[in-house]
Amino acid sequence: MKFWGGFLVIVGSISFIGFVFVAIVSKLFPLSDNPIIQAIQNDRYYCFLAPLTLPALLVAIYFHWLSMKLFKHA
């Protein structure tokens, strides 16, 4: 059980670091000759994905809280 917990924390951390690199850090570097890094630097989708997902996440959290309140007091 500890192995899977540590494994999931490591995978989540690597994914988060990768997303931060793609969304923020790669835009700060000078243009590259590598076509993959250049495509990441020119991308305008993922840098807006997380900020625009937050309002939907807040609505989902509110509905989850509301449904739990209704279930407990019904």
Automatic annotation (TrEMBL):
Q: Name one GO molecular function term.
A: glycosyltransferase activity
Q: Name one Pfam family in it.
A: PIG-Y
Q: Does the keyword Glycosyltransferase apply?
A: yes
Record's keyword terms, sorted: Glycosyltransferase, Membrane, Transferase, Transmembrane, Transmembrane helix
Give the transmembrane ranges: 6-25, 45-65
Annotated coiled-coil segments of the chain: none
Is Transferase one of the keywords?
A: yes
Tell me which domain of life the UniProt entry assigns to the organism this sequence originates from: Eukaryota
This one is known as Phosphatidylinositol N-acetylglucosaminyltransferase subunit Y
Identify the species of origin: Arabidopsis thaliana x Arabidopsis arenosa
Provide the taxonomic classification.
Eukaryota, Viridiplantae, Streptophyta, Embryophyta, Tracheophyta
